[in-house]
User: Which sequence fits this backbone?
């Protein structure tokens, strides 16, 4: 333990020398003997003793009691009085100085020793208590300040002021607070006090591991220096001599920052100061984490976590502000509502991780289509909004919409395979379609719904009659839901004829719904609503069960080789994960062999995410079901894709059949499809055959099967056998006529 340093203030030289020799004999260090109060005060300022032995009576203008009061109030150094006087007045004055002892001369060595030791102990205890109190007061003040509504950097400035406010600290009223920069190994200065311009420039960023603050950050402990040593790697012009306390700010999450306090050169490391800084660093760590959580929550309220785009709340704020500016400056504004087509397929079949990749890439592609002044926002899921500022003409909005559609239509490479999605866009224009944010938003949503109903990957401008259309569609959808619940749907069956053998080859199940008000609903009106609403899943499953039971009944009544054709919707491929299992279960329950079930799929199913579709089709083929491509030629026909699919038949769309053999173009198309399909080992079915001329022509082309009103219209199940018998009679007569013609 270091020796206490004591200053003797005694105007009698002999007494002073005796006290000095006694103190040295007791093991203390005597700084000096001063003979006047003025000299004593000067020496205290220079040397900062641990204790002062003060004679009450001193020569000069100031006596010992007055000098002791100044020392106690200014330097907080313990004072013991030495005096030959003990009258009440002197004692009362001495008490006012909060002295640490009062020794009457002459005194014993033991008495002097015990008084000094008690005074030093008492001072240490009081100083410790005061410092702990000061620390707690500053910590409480910091916590109180942290509750105020202010940004993190402003808060750190206030905390720094509080940190430097404690009187017993040896800091130079200079310091700063660094925070660790996100995703980097750099400390960034966020708050500072009384630093030179050169310091602010040179030390604004400090690499972790470099200089004193960087070492405190990397080592996770206090780094102290009493001078500009070799560890002080970052220096600048006109740097003043100084030392540092560098204290890491850390939590369970790791390093958050560093407190940097400046001290005078030569300052001795102080444990109380370090404890104080540790307490503040711990408090700051908790505050920083809370502020970071608050900032994160505020960010999540205003921005989308995945894409970084403005969220719903911030979008409406910006839309409202943009409308106000458009009103003031009299210009048009475009609002685009974007909804991705078939995005659910990515999420359902590849998982949300791949869905997130697509959404991030979609965001990037849309941004490339916009100006810096425009706003792109993600509302939720696969819905985005675009605010187009200062457009001259409505066609400008259409131009941007088409750019976005083209950009998003490009394939997305996921897990080394290409997948395609589309986007439906609704457009509303300020002030034409509304002069407030809610109206513009609602109308763009309405227009988007219209675009999506038109097969998607398209845009639509809002028009006043769209609202009525949407309401009718919603009403129609609700009525369809009720029809599903009440089992109001029926199946009609349309026979398919083998025109080579002139016999019944199969029947196709067609959905029918007789609306109580509108009568029989057209498939073209019913299927899109069923697909968009998801009702097609339950309707499709019911239809498949009904059709399988019907064909089993037909087999038992004398037509054992007739197959049943059932249409599958694209939504069943995209949305129904258990499609294969569902079909297998129905075949098992109806005891129908798979080779008597012909599943008809359209071209767009084949083109949509072909790799996944091909896998499902392959599984169905391996199960033993037949597969046909329906309405071939009506879409983006691709005969080349057929070589990758295990299908048995092509059904040529009725639009090509209805004008043959008169229309030479349609005739050429039908001939080409038939030739190529036969070359690939596929059978060809001609749909929509209504005249003998059409039948004769497709027979000359070697078409395999035909279906149309020439043979029969679709009939309900209770009339199916009657219809087949009538067709059989017709085919027998046709066969007889052919024989007469050839004989």
Assistant:
């Amino acid at each position: 333990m270091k020796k206490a340093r004591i200053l003797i203030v005694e105007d009698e030289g002999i007494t002073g020398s005796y006290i000095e020799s006694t103190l040295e004999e007791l093991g203390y260090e005597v700084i000096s003997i001063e003979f006047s109060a003025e000299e004593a005060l000067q020496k205290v300022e220079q040397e900062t003793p641990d204790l002062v032995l003060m004679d009450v009576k001193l020569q000069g203008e100031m006596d010992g009691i007055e000098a002791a009061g100044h020392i106690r109030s200014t330097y907080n150094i313990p004072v013991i009085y030495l005096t030959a006087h003990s009258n009440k007045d002197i004692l009362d004055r001495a008490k006012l100085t909060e002295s640490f002892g009062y020794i009457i001369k002459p005194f014993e060595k033991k008495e002097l020793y015990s008084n000094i030791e008690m005074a030093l102990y008492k001072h240490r205890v009081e100083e410790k208590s005061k410092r702990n109190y000061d620390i707690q007061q500053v910590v409480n003040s910091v916590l109180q300040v942290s509750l105020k509504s202010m940004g993190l950097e402003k808060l750190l400035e206030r905390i720094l002021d509080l940190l430097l406010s404690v009187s017993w600290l040896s800091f130079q009223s200079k310091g700063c607070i660094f925070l660790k920069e996100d995703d980097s190994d750099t400390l960034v200065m966020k708050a500072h006090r009384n630093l030179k311009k050169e310091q602010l420039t040179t030390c604004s960023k400090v690499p972790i591991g470099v200089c004193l603050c960087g070492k405190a950050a990397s080592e996770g402990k206090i780094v102290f220096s009493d001078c500009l040593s070799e560890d002080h790697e970052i220096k600048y012009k006109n740097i003043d001599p100084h030392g540092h306390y560098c204290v890491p700010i850390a939590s369970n999450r790791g390093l958050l920052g560093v407190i940097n306090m400046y001290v005078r050169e030569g300052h001795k490391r102080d444990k109380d100061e370090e404890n104080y800084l540790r307490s503040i660093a711990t408090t700051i760590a908790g505050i920083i984490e809370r502020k970071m959580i608050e900032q994160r929550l505020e960010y999540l309220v205003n921005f989308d976590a995945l894409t970084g785009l403005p969220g719903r709340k911030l979008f409406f704020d910006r839309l409202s502000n943009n409308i106000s500016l458009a009103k003031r400056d009299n210009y048009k504004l475009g609002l685009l509502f974007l909804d991705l087509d078939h995005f659910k397929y990515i999420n359902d079949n590849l998982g949300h991780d791949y869905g997130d990749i697509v959404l991030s890439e979609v965001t990037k592609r849309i941004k490339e289509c916009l100006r810096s002044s425009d706003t792109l926002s993600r509302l939720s899921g696969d819905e985005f909004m675009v605010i187009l500022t200062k457009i001259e003409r409505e066609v400008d909005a259409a131009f941007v919409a088409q750019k976005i559609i083209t950009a998003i239509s490009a394939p997305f490479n996921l897990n080394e395979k290409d997948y395609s999605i589309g986007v439906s866009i609704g457009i509303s224009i300020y002030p034409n379609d509304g002069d407030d944010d809610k109206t513009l938003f609602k109308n763009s949503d309405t227009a988007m719904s219209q675009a999506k109903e038109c097969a998607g990957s398209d845009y639509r401008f809002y028009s006043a009659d769209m609202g009525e259309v949407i309401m009718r569609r919603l009403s129609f959808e609700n009525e369809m839901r009720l029809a599903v619940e009440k089992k109001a749907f029926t199946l009609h069956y349309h026979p398919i004829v083998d025109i080579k053998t002139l016999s019944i080859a199969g029947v196709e199940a067609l959905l029918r719904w007789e609306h109580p008000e509108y009568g029989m609903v057209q498939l073209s009106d019913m299927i899109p609503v069923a697909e968009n609403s998801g009702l097609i899943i339950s309707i499709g499953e019911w239809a498949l069960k009904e059709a399988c039971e019907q064909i089993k009944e037909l087999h038992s009544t004398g037509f054992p080789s007739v197959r049943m054709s059932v249409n599958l919707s694209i939504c069943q491929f995209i949305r129904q994960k258990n499609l294969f299992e569902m079909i297998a279960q129905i075949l098992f329950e109806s005891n129908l062999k798979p080779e008597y079930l012909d599943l008809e799929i359209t071209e767009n199913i084949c083109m949509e995410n072909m790799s996944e579709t091909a896998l499902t089709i392959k599984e169905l083929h391996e199960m033993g079901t037949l597969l046909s491509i329906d309405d071939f030629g009506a879409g983006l026909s691709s005969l080349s894709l057929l070589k990758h699919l295990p299908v048995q038949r092509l059904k040529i769309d009725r639009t090509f059949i209805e004008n043959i053999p008169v229309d030479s173009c349609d005739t050429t198309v039908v001939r080409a499809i038939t030739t190529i399909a036969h070359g690939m080992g596929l059978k060809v079915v001609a749909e929509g055959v209504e005249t003998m001329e059409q039948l004769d022509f497709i027979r000359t082309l070697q078409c395999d099967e035909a279906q149309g009103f020439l043979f029969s219209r679709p009939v309900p199940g209770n009339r199916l056998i009657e219809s087949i018998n009538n067709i059989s009679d017709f085919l027998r007569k046709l066969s007889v006529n052919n024989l007469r013609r050839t004989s």
User: Anything to note?
Assistant: The chain has a mean pLDDT of 87. The longest strand covers residues 503-515. Residues 109-146 form the longest helix (38 residues). The chain has 25 helices and 28 strands.
